[in-house]
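Supplementary Note 3. Input sequence used for the single-chain structure prediction.
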Amino acid sequence: MSSELTLLIGTKRIGGWKSVEVIRSITQMASTFNLELTDVWDKEPTELVPELSVTVLVGEDTLITGFIDNMSIDARVDSYDISVSGRCRTGDLIDCSAINKPGTWKNIDLLRLAEDLVNPFGIKVIAETNLGEKIKEVSISTGETILDILNKVCKERAVLSLGNTDGNLLLTIAGNDASTDNLVYGGNEGNVLTANIISNYIERFSLYQVKGQRKSEGDSWGKTTTNIFGEANDLSVNRYRPKLFSADGITSNNSALKRASWEAQVRAGRSNTVKVSVIGWTQSNGELWRENRTVYAYLPPLRISAEMIIEEIVYSLSESGKIATMTLVSPDTYSSEPKKVIKKKNRTSKFGWW
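The predicted structure, written as discrete structure tokens, is reproduced below.
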């Protein structure tokens, strides 16, 4: 089976790319692509123009369904380089403001809310997980994007809102499927070309608090207010480092606790990220490496031997050939049941001395 990357425009496929970079990540609602080819000028305008609807394929496997955002041409005497970049269709949900009328929902399912927000863009919503209880109330603030609104309600439920390969919006959880191959450094079964770990505590805090107020319900609606509060600690951070969040859109102490716990857990998980690269884009069975899959990583130099989640994958093509570079995080990072306290890891933990 061919593993060439092609750009599908209607029924026409364009291949022969000089360089390729396709990024799919569970931290971004829209996947991206950057492609470059060298061609001979035939005195005709290029068909690769912004807003063009395209599909990025590897063989018959779809990576991205979306649009070209940018195009550039670098002309020479006898040839010219054409570069195009773009995103999944869900890129519009990142850029565009929500102008739904009346702009306030009460006692609504997350699925229904997402459908109301994205339907004007011709995008479908697919739920792959239990989305939890109904949302008591959510309102659009002036200028808020669809991404902003969905983030407010998805974070406390540990739900990911992602663009799938067909360009629709997927509501899911992390690590919903498993990779076929392991990632192994060294030895006869080794397939890892490079591996490194980065530990960054700048966005990690010892104390997370979510505070706010909401109007009371019942006969006293609008006359009194109820304080909303939730708190979580990360005991791996030894210094006093508090972080306070506004409880906008949060209507109960339990929801505030979940949001605080989510912030603590995700930031703890992201503070230690692993990057590995392998030759080629496919696994031993011919399937592409994919994001949001669990994978067993055996990386002795990094003191890692554990099941992890592929948070991001970059498919690249250059003079060095095809390389798949993956960012790995601990499965706890996106757990659907965040812990109230993130316990300090000891020296025997999967991240060694962290």
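Residues 346-354 have pLDDT under 50 and may be disordered. The longest strand covers residues 61-75.
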